[in-house]
Design goal:
Strands 4, 5, 6, 7, 14, 15, 16, 17 and 18 form a nine-stranded mixed sheet that branches. By secondary structure, this protein is an alpha/beta fold. Helix 1 packs parallel to helix 7. It binds flavin-adenine dinucleotide (FAD).
């Protein structure tokens, strides 16, 4: 009789759950992924698709506090905080505010850089070596600036990023932009190209990854909501779901922005707020951008796919709100107008919102659930879950099989929030 394999049940089938399934399977474990809706149908579906190791700066930076305060009474602001008296949300913002300091930003930036770089190496293996099909493009990510003042400010940030983190961009003057990407308007101040960044189509990535994992024996269960856990002697014995109890040897919580509520069933305090963003995907304009681009002055991102083109942006702290206001979509389209000759097309394929799983220290929670011997957490990936997914999966696999993590992971310990 073959020895039975250890079974891991992953709660949540976003890009993080799928990536963890991959690395756990590589260890020879039996893996099941359950999702209350569809696999990768939530925040991992319509995001901008950047795999961007250049994004080392956390949201908790000194200027963030001012931006948040200014937005309180301006719902049209791309970064909007809805005033609230909810004690948990107020606590989150208090903890967030305490971390908007230079020293903390630098520390978090170093941890982010390590996991982003490690993830990029893993993506290279998945895409180049294993041929995972996801419209991967080694294009770089182009930051386009409209005004000379913004260009000057960005140049200073770029110099500093290069000195402190070894992340540097190629500077492109306004006069060179038409040759670089004919989709851009004339009269722009210039751009910075982060050549190490890449793009992919997030829904295709998860679709292809899921298919491949299914062929190798991973079970995916959709429309199955996890409600609570049963526990005995410091371990989970079953999770209670809308399909009835499900049993495994090891349990992994990867429910994205919804992890706060289920965290309690994992004995784990996970202060995660939904950071709502939007995207609109259209048919490709005749003059479609060649590069994925960010327009920092208008806070909007552009991703050109093979059969469509997406504008994405906004960060709203408005709770678990499911609406897609037409005004926000219009705003997204208008934000691209100063930069692109054909900023939108009449054929809208999809309007979308996603709740980013936001932690108050801008770092993900990856590690064992405190006090439970067979439970782990992989959530809170903020604005960079797609970029950090493969390294997260590899870390979780190391921990589950009891190996020393391939990357220093103390800063990501889910228990850290209890001490705050
Ligand atoms: C506009 C926008 C643009 C973005 N652009 C980028 C980008 O360019 N690059 C990048 O790296 N990141 C980007 N992000 C962030 C990225 O999308 C997220 O960090 C990432 O998708 C989080 O993945 P996840 O698997 O943790 O969460 P999710 O994808 O939300 O998955 C969690 C899953 O858990 C399931 N679930 C929840 N509760 C339960 C339950 N009780 N029972 C069962 N299942 C449950 C949900 O249905 C969901 O499928 C962007 C986000 C937004 C909003």
């Amino acid at each position: 009789m073959p020895e039975s394999r250890k079974h891991v049940l992953i709660l949540g089938g976003g890009v993080i759950g799928v990536a963890c399934a991959h690395y756990l399977l590589e260890e020879g474990l039996e893996v099941t992924v359950v999702d209350q809706k569809t696999i990768a149908g939530a925040c991992s579906h319509g995001n901008c698709g950047y795999v961007c190791p250049s994004h080392v700066l956390p949201l908790t930076e000194p200027a963030a506090l001012k931006v948040a305060l200014q937005s309180l009474f301006r719902p049209s602001s791309p970064f909007y905080v809805k005033p609230t008296l909810d004690p948990e949300t107020l606590k989150w913002f208090w903890q967030f505010a305490k971390r908007c300091r230079h020293r903390v930003m630098m520390r978090s930036g170093k941890h982010l850089k390590a996991i982003l770089d490690a993830s990029m190496l893993e993506y290279r293996k998945l895409v180049d070596r294993d041929g995972l099909s996801c419209q991967w493009r080694d294009s770089g990510l182009l930051y386009v600036l409209k005004s000379q003042a913004a260009m000057k400010g960005f140049a200073a940030t770029d110099r500093w990023l290069s000195q402190e983190f070894g992340v540097s961009a190629k500077r492109i003057e306004g006069s060179e932009l038409a040759d670089l990407d004919p989709a851009l308007r004339s009269g722009l101040a210039g751009a910075f190209l982060y050549q190490s960044d890449t793009m992919l189509r997030p829904d295709r990535l998860c679709q292809a990854w899921r298919q491949r994992l299914e062929q190798r024996g991973v079970r995916f269960v959709e429309h199955c909501e996890v409600i609570s856990t049963q526990q005995e002697q410091g371990g989970i014995t079953a999770v209670i779901t809308s399909h009835g109890p499900m049993k495994a040897d090891t349990y992994l919580l990867a429910t994205g922005a919804r992890s706060g509520a289920l965290g309690k069933a994992f004995h784990c305090y996970l202060p995660i707020q939904p950071g709502k963003g939007y995207s609109v995907t259209m048919s490709r304009p005749a003059l479609c951008p060649t590069y994925p681009m960010l327009f920092p002055e208008h806070r909007v991102g552009v991703t050109p796919f093979e059969e469509g083109y997406r504008l994405g942006s906004m960060m709203e702290f408005v709770g678990f709100n499911e609406q897609i206001p037409q005004g926000r979509i219009r705003q997204l389209m208008e934000s691209a107008e100063p930069y692109l000759k054909q900023p939108h097309t009449p054929e809208v394929i999809e309007t979308w919102y996603g709740w980013r799983p936001m932690t108050w220290d801008s770092l993900p929670a990856i590690g064992p659930a405190p006090g439970l011997h067979n439970a782990y957490v992989a959530t809170g990936h903020n604005m960079l879950g797609l970029s950090m997914a493969p390294a997260t999966g590899r870390l979780i696999a190391d921990m589950v099989v009891g190996r020393r993590p391939f990357l220093e992971a103390v800063a990501f310990d889910p228990a850290r929030f209890e001490q705050a």
